[in-house]
Amino acid sequence: MEIKIKKKEMPEVRKFFETCRELRDELPSCWSVWEKADKVYEEAVEDTSGQVLTYNGELKLVPYHQISAGQTRDGETAFHNEEYAYLKAVDSNSDKTAPGYLNSTYIAKQQLPVELRIVEREDSGYVVSLMADENILEAESFVTGMGIASSDFSMQKMGEQVRFLSKGKGHGLGFSQYGGNKLAKEGKNWKEILNTYFPLMDITKN
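The structure assignment produced for this chain is given below.
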């Protein structure tokens, strides 16, 4: 990957890198990750040193995922908490061209509740909750536990199995790694890419 593609990930990666560098003698296996990366991450960390994403002057959670369903999720809706309103749903339509955008997971009926139906779905397409017999399940926990690629899914009964057809990979919040990489290849720099996925946040000196 080009160095500019890596730089967009640095506000999240830098802390891990710097910890590994400080503890290279005590944790050689940790440091070896960076030595095998052709120094690309090291250079990107150095070039973005001291720069962090903030909202109203405060450090906040900045989640990322592999591939969105075509649009990232709204934080306040996903977490049911206005504290995460700084995470806005944004277009990431290029994710639909990603290898592995669509995934099928087949689960035996006997492993599932007798009644399983979707109760709530976000505007972005991600399922928020399901009814499992007489219990409400949080969708993100359900897909993680069942090995389903994302919570933007549909269900189809197929004999003794249920097919879960999902879009994207990961929780869909914040930064899409695939979408960000596509923007980098189009010539966007790391600041422009972060501003695309975190439009309400600021890149500031720490």
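Interim note for the steering committee: The chain has a mean pLDDT of 84. The two ends are 27 Å apart (CA to CA).
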